[in-house]
Design goal:
Elements: H1 5-16, H2 20-27, H3 31-39, H4 49-56, H5 60-63, H6 68-89, H7 97-108, H8 113-127, H9 135-151, H10 155-173, H11 176-183, H12 193-199, H13 208-233, H14 241-262, H15 264-267, H16 271-287, H17 291-310, H18 318-331, H19 342-355
Helix pairs in contact: 1-3, 2-3, 7-8, 8-9, 9-10, 10-11, 12-13, 13-14, 14-16, 16-17, 17-18, 17-19, 18-19
Length: about 350
């Protein structure tokens, strides 16, 4: 028997994202047995090899290390192709070509969580803007997401799956009860790691960088939630617009204060949120026929989009921000009164250049 089998079991287990306990339960052995195999203190009996290979979707030869590197290389090729889909096309809506390609990838690695999620996401995107979507395809995406939620031990990955599933219930199934049930799969804010790190930062002796990351995460989610609450839940008429503008300015000021406290590099994670706040403000100004203020807000939003495009933190997605803003300005007729203004045209031109 090849003495690298323990190393391969550990590597495959980590790739699959399962614990020693979960693998042990699947095989009918103790977690201590898995630990001994992975440490080289013992080897699995030959009777377990087919079950191990089947669990990891590899051949026994690959489990023993004969062809593992080749299979790993193939998996990495698929991951690279998925990244290209996400970065270059963003799974264009209405396009089912990515779905069929990802089906092929999933057939090669049927239990790979990353590939399964990409397939479900492509299915959802392909039907998102369709007036009469392919409900069978959406149901298939739902089944994939629910299976991933059940099988994963990665909390962050589970959150991504729940988020997509919740959006499906909210936007396509129009099922508020189902939406609430999906959301309730997640713990409350007081149970998240960011809350614990910041609440216990002194006693836990956390690194300053880790605390800063958690503070930024909590602030971003809080302010973005408050922003949408102000925009969509509060009464929306010309008597409330100035109040809403004041609230948005306060939120921007809070982010700017945070930049002074934490520092520019970490605080730059707020740039997309600030760009959105200025864009929201522009919609209220233009509705009130305040055109100079409208363009000023659009210019400020653009300045933050430019910062996003220059920031390595956002290297995979900046063109999406620019594309969305340019598309919004082109399609919304509220901007017709200023559409020929040189400053407005300059904003649109720069956004289109950044979106390429």
């Amino acid at each position: 028997m090849n003495i690298t089998i323990g190393e391969n079991v550990k590597k495959l287990r980590n790739q699959k994202g399962v614990t020693q306990e979960k693998l042990a339960d699947a095989l009918g052995v103790t977690p201590q047995a898995i630990s001994r195999w992975e440490s080289g203190a013992g080897f699995p009996a030959i009777d377990y090899l087919p079950d191990l290979a089947g669990y990891f979707e590899v051949s026994v030869d690959e489990l023993l290390g004969v062809k593992l590197s080749k299979r790993e290389a193939r998996r990495e090729e698929i991951y690279a192709e998925i990244r290209r889909y996400e970065e270059e096309t963003g799974y264009p809506r209405g396009d089912t070509g990515a779905v069929e390609r990802l089906r092929e990838m999933s057939a090669e690695f049927p239990k790979d969580e990353k590939i399964g999620f990409a397939l479900a996401e492509a299915m959802l995107f392909s039907q998102w803007d369709e007036e009469e979507p392919n409900r069978a395809l959406l149901r298939e995406a739902e089944r994939i997401l629910r299976a991933l939620i059940r099988q994963t031990d990665d909390y962050d990955f589970k959150f991504r799956c729940v988020k997509e599933l919740a959006a499906l219930y909210k936007e396509k199934w129009l099922d508020e009860q189902g939406y609430a049930e999906v959301v309730n799969m997640l713990p409350s804010l007081s149970s998240c790691r960011e809350f614990f790190v910041t609440d216990l930062c002194h006693g836990a002796q956390q690194e300053r960088e880790a605390i800063d990351d958690c503070v930024m995460t909590l602030v971003l989610h809080t302010v973005n939630t408050l922003r949408d609450y102000v925009a969509y839940e509060l009464p929306n008429d010309d008597e409330t617009w100035n109040d809403k503008l004041s609230y948005f300015e306060t939120m921007i000021g809070f982010f700017q204060c945070l930049e002074k406290i934490i520092g520019g590099e970490k605080a730059s994670k707020a740039d997309p949120s600030i760009a959105t706040l200025y864009r929201y403000m522009a919609t209220y100004h233009v509705a009130a026929d305040r055109y100079d203020e409208t363009i000023s807000c659009l210019e400020k939003s653009l300045s933050y989009v430019e910062r996003i495009c220059e920031n390595p933190l956002f290297e995979h997605v900046p063109h999406n921000y620019a594309w969305y803003d340019a598309n919004m300005l082109a399609q919304q007729d509220r901007y017709d009164p200023i559409r020929k203004d040189p400053r407005f045209l300059a904003v649109v031109e720069k956004l289109n250049a950044l979106a390429k």
